[in-house]
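Our working data are protein records whose layout never changes between entries. Instead of coordinates, the fold is spelled out as a row of discrete tokens. Here is such a record, shown just as it appears in the course material:
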Amino acid sequence: MAPTTIKNIVIIAGSLLVGGLAATGINAYFVTSPAGHLPEESPTTEAKVLFWYDPMYPNTKFDKPGKSPFMDMDLVPKYADEDGDGDGTQAKAGIKIDPTMTQNLGLRTEQVTYGQLNYALTIPANLSFNEYQYAIVQSRSEGFIEKVYPLTIGDKVKKGTPLIELTIPEWVEAQSEYLLLAETGASPLQIKGILERLRLSGMSEDEISQLRKTRKAQTRFVIKAPMDGVITAFDLRSGMNISKDKVVAQIQGINPIWINASIPESASYLLKDSTQFSIGVPAYPQETFKVLKWDILPSVDPITRTLQVRLAVDNAKERLKPGMNAVMTLNSQSEPMLLIPSQAVIDAGDEQRVITLNEQGRFVPKLIKIFHESKQQTGLISGLEEGETVVTSGLFLIDSEANISGALDRMRQQQTATEIDHSQHVAPSTAQPDPHAGH
């Protein structure tokens, strides 16, 4: 081979060697240089799909996309990092839902407040005579009925209304004795004794006053009504003999009239000093009636398990009649407690929960313990704090997402751990703290 040819081959090989070394050095420089000198574009990676599901039946999972066998809709993918922060790490508590989806749901929220539940219980009632205004009329001495005034059961009478006239021999005899003592100058003690005997035998004060004033013995006596009311017993006739224990008449009052109602034993907590009652009577739908006082009878009906409540209602116009039907509405308030809208509660039978919205915009399911529900408000024993935000609409989809993502299982585990830790640090006799300390 010619020297010139060999020389050219050596030059070419040297050039290739130098070029290779230079390329290797440059490549190493850029690979090991600090970030920012020549940034590289990270390859785009798609989130891993764990399974597909129908939001209406979240507990059924499918291994490929398609149409739901339950509803006329496409299956929705569940991604591996839906509960993450986007960098593969576990998210904070709760779940994140696409804002577009929550907007389409018409999502609404309200805050947990502190106040009182307002109760209203409407129950049937009935009107009856006022048993405090009750009189049994008797002569208290044997006699003969001379006249019966035209009265019968159901008639209203006023105090002093004549009922019957009768002759009572005992009274005639006692009057004669009194007049004899008075004319013969008997001692005041003797006269007082005979007048007292007349009183004890049933003679009225008016008749005794007339005797002392006129100094004449009366032979016929009038038995009068001692009070206003309605006659509920009256069966005497003229010419009858009457014994001293015979009932002349029975009279019962109707002003105030009584209204009686049976309240379920389970609602007895509504009866307190601040409880208000209102009365409605179907016969007078446009009228209201004033409740003067009310009482709870001391025993519970063992058959119906109800408390008996009795109201005294003003009946000055006497329009309310014993035996009428009425409707009693009881209005009461609970003690102050935490309140949420009732539509925010998800009742699973063995547990109740709500979906809260935290400051990071994540939906967090929480278990709650309910006290009572009334008028679309639910009172809580525990589970939330005043000022927290609860979801009141669009709950179904959010609750489905929480079930799918496992947020509910984590919530239950955390609550169980908290209860165990609390039981280890708090004595059994320690009272539960006020959920609204400081108010």
Observations:
- Helices lie at 3-32, 99-104, 169-183, 188-200, 205-214, 395-405, 407-425.
- The longest strand covers residues 118-138.
- The chain has five domains: 49-79, 95-115+336-419, 121-130+254-335, 135-143+150-162+225-251, 170-218.
- Residues 95-115+336-419 form a domain with the conserved putative lor/sdh protein from methanococcus maripaludis s2 fold fold (CATH 2.40.420.20).
